[in-house]
Predict the structure.
Amino acid sequence: MSETAKLTKGSIRGHLVTQTLPMIIGVAAIMSVGLIDAYFIGQLGSAELAAVSFIFPITIALSSLGVGVMVGINSVIARALGEGDEARAERRANFGVVFALTIGVILGFALFLLLDPLFRLMQASDELLPLIRDYMQPYSLGMPVLLTQMGLQGVLRGQGEARYVSMISITYSVVNWILDPILITGAFGFDGFGVAGAAYATIAGFLVAILVALFFIRRTSIAIHPTLIRECDLGASSKAIIGVAGPAAFSNAINPIGLSVLTALLASQGEDAVAGFGAAGRLQSFAVVPLLALSGSIGAIVGQNWGANRADRSRRAMYWAGLFCVGYGITTALVLFLFGDWFADFFTDDEAVIAQFSRYLEISVWGYAGFGLLITANGALNAVDRAPFALAQSAARVFLVMLPFGWLLRGAWGADAIYGAELVANLAGGALAALVVWWVLKSGPQSAGSGQTKR
């Protein structure tokens, strides 16, 4: 057992708290950027807010692909440290960062070329397409920066350095907080770039995040250095990371892909419905921050203990995490259900948009507990090299439940069918995920084969 595998010793509940609390702060900071973007873009007009509603699920899907890469790096590092192989953990870390940068270049180039066909497929109108391009063109060129900083965060997460990851996220967010009002609506005599300003602020935040991440990594036991990349077995390293990162990336991207399809279905109900759905989605993303943070922190805890053949500790971590998901999900749902109109006023004064915003919250919030169980279970499955299971249950949630429900009932229920589709999918997905992760963790690393892999 490695001396740097600090999560294999001590209280499981204590580790959940110390790993998740910094993550909550960091994830909240990141999600606040979406809220601030929506607020300042909302000052430009309802057309701009509707354009961003089309953009939002696409950017989340792309970020989710980056999260998958980060999860892959996190997983192989955590398990290597749990097995006591610090040299392999360092080699995997260096390869992982280069891998992340390469994926960012490929994604950015593809996105830049496919912008118009992609958003026409989502039923974006000709009036909104120029606004969408204003944001997405610079954003696509910034994809290599996004993926690189996520790769560096994966290196820190695998070591259980939640505090450092949180500080990186806060730094990125502060840069956005400062630049958003200047670059979107203008300040100090500067007119601003409109919707494009939000993209410029985001890219600037990513660049600063990379510098901060490199600074923190220098304070850990793993070094990022070109010579270490040359020492890697490229075949084994790529297989190890892709084996987790590929399924994890698609698993994380499936939900926003589903939301993109729901947005396209909702477009038939008018721009007010799309704008309300998009703005409420930003608020919802902020509301589930503790669940997202828990899904990010569970991987290092479960992964290190799994690598150290301590399946009992992995199961205990998931048990307490599941209880939190249920309790927090129900409490938050009640708050948003009761105060939906008050939150809507923050984004817009358009009565039609406010009505759709509130209606979405009235229906969808009751699935938060299930959503938390799903993403936390996925984090645990990725950590123990069972990413295909996570992918399968995420795909089932969206393609077997969410989209058929919304498609079939849209004619009779209108926008309510779209909101209800998300609710039913979260409840079903959470129940399935809880059963799958408990079965996998009960089998133990020996029978699963994950604890012995030399990835």
